[in-house]
TrEMBL record:
Keyword Nucleus: no
Any one Pfam family match given in the protein's UniProt record, by short name: Rap1a
Protein name: Rap1a immunity protein domain-containing protein
Domain of life: Bacteria
Keywords linked to the UniProt accession: Signal
Length: 111
């Protein structure tokens, strides 16, 4: 289990330095449906975590422990499946779009 988390962390560090358009929705979707035992699925998990960690607009507030990522990943998988017309867009943009409805930051104005 520790090796899986190290792989995810390593991949997310790699992805955060890569161009955002390197992975589009088509590639992201193919990685997401790979069997859990395959490297492509781990890359999908790492990419999603990397996008969350590097969210430049700071509009995502995800407070999910690493061992409870399945519901979050399911949101992204379902979004990709239900929006085939958007799959040519950047994978990172699609992840943010998928997660905003549930994990949007709510800012309270200071008085």
């Amino acid at each position: 289990m520790r090796n899986i988390f190290l792989t995810i962390i390593s991949f997310s560090l790699f992805i955060s330095s890569a161009s955002a358009s390197y992975i589009d929705g088509n590639l992201l979707k193919s990685m997401s449906v790979a069997p859990v035992s395959e490297n492509a699925h781990l890359q999908f998990v790492g990419y999603v975590v990397g996008v969350i960690d590097s969210n430049k607009q700071n509009n995502l507030c995800v407070d999910v422990p690493p061992n409870e990522l399945t519901p979050l990943l399911d949101i992204v998988i379902n979004y990709l499946a239900n929006n085939p017309e958007k799959l040519n867009a950047s994978g990172s943009d699609l992840i943010v779009e998928a997660l905003i409805p549930k994990y949007s930051c709510t800012f309270t104005p200071k008085s």
